[in-house]
Amino acid sequence: MSTPKNALQSNPVRKKRDIGGIVISVLFALVCVMYIMPIILVVINSFKSNSSINTDTFSLPNGENFVGIDNYKKGLTFGNYPFLKSLGYSLLITIVSVVLILLCTSMAAWYISRVGSRFTKIFYTVCIFSMIVPFQMVMFSLVEVSNKLKLNTPFTIPVIYLGFGAGLAVFMFTGFVKSLPLEIEEAAAIDGCGPIRTFFSVVLPMLKPTLISVGILEVMWVWNDYLLPTLVLDINVYKTIPIHVQYLQGSYGTVDLGATMAVIMFSILPIIIVYLFCQKHIIKGVAAGAVKG
Hints:
mainly alpha; 2 domains; MetI-like fold
């Protein structure tokens, strides 16, 4: 059976495409290795002795420098500030901030999408504009305002996070709400649902893909944020985990690198686990929010 002429002519082109795909895959694999290399070094050094980390940072743990989980035990008590206290403040700030962002911005996006007045258009434009304003432009005035309004505690700083996180959240929620059929909300109104009940009983469950994706993005941002808590909070009284790592010192200013690596692992492991389990929802939520602009 003879091979078609067109198939013979297309083979070199297909072979070039296959080679190009392999080259691109190798390049991206190298880029991924470069990105995860710092995390790998932290994991390796968290099981090594302090002297070995100073002298041979890139070596693997062996019989001479391997200390097991001693660094992790020491990391919970090392320093002048309890790690569990920093963990509690980080959890409090992250949970309250993310819940506040998701609730307020989803309601705002629903109002923007359904009302369509001049005010909502201006408000939506302001939210989009806030995404491109550098934080450095407002951080000095932010410190002054937060002190005057008493927003400089872990219990009130979520209000500031709401302001900075609203832009992206409103943008994603608005795009998704515009793709929802209005007839479902009209049917709920006919059945006697008011605006609040319609939102929580009808609209909010349909926002689940975008809620999850926005929630993951905001969790990673708030949990790992260093600059905003440093500027707003009194770091001598309140320390989040990033601040705790920065000022992790023992008596007389000594720094135990093994304990420091263990504390860093304590800080990044929860967010890595959350991201690995929920990363597929980020793509779904972004795609759903991009149906209509």
